[in-house]
Write a structure and sequence with these properties.
Elements: E1 2-3, E2 11-12, H1 20-34, H2 38-47, H3 58-108, H4 115-126, H5 136-177
Antiparallel strand pairs: 1-2
Helix pairs in contact: 1-3, 3-4, 3-5
């Protein structure tokens, strides 16, 4: 079936295929998305037995766009899988940090610090029922919160410890003045 065109040569439209213009646009779009440069484009076309895409029939150009579309889909699915793997690794890293931070705080406050208790504390802080459902942003805030609690607890312990040491030194000095040494 012959279709009138405004271009250099008459275009033929096979039944069920997109128009030549649609195929050309898709072809060049796919080349751009795949990052194929001129040399790679020429080697691709030479594998199809032509030196230019204008030499391809509509059917062959359609097949070529299908092939390039599949390549783009493969690459994007690989990229998506890699992105998901990176996200899971980031979540795992922050979960371990939160566990360590809460465990340190529980240890400083002389509370039981089993993994179940640590996870329950994190879930309570994040207001969720499952530790693995806590998102990265909430994990970061829990990590920072318990890190700050640890710093405060250590500072309080050092202050109270130094006060106890001072009291002990004063007691020893009084006992030394009275001549009583143990």
């Amino acid at each position: 079936m012959r279709v009138e065109s405004k271009g250099r040569r008459p275009k033929y439209k096979a039944q069920g295929l997109p128009t030549r213009g649609q195929l050309n646009r898709k072809y060049h779009y796919l080349l751009k998305e795949l990052g194929i440069n001129e040399d790679e484009k020429h080697s691709l076309l030479s594998s199809w037995g032509v030196s230019s895409s204008t030499e391809l029939s509509d059917e062959k150009l359609y097949e070529l766009t299908l092939f390039l579309g599949l390549e783009l889909k493969k690459r994007s699915s690989k990229a998506k899988a890699q992105k998901q793997a990176d996200h899971r690794a980031e979540l795992d890293k922050w979960r371990k940090r939160v566990i360590a931070s809460i465990g340190a705080w529980l240890k400083l406050t002389n509370q039981p610090c089993g993994i179940g208790y640590i996870k329950a504390t994190a879930c309570q802080g994040a207001e969720v029922t499952n530790f693995n459902k806590i998102g990265i942003s909430k994990l970061r805030s829990l990590y920072n919160e318990f890190g700050n609690k640890n710093k405060v607890q250590k500072a309080v312990k050092s202050l109270t410890q130094s006060e106890e040491d001072k009291a002990l030194l004063e007691l020893m000095a009084k006992q030394a003045e009275n001549g009583v040494m143990s």
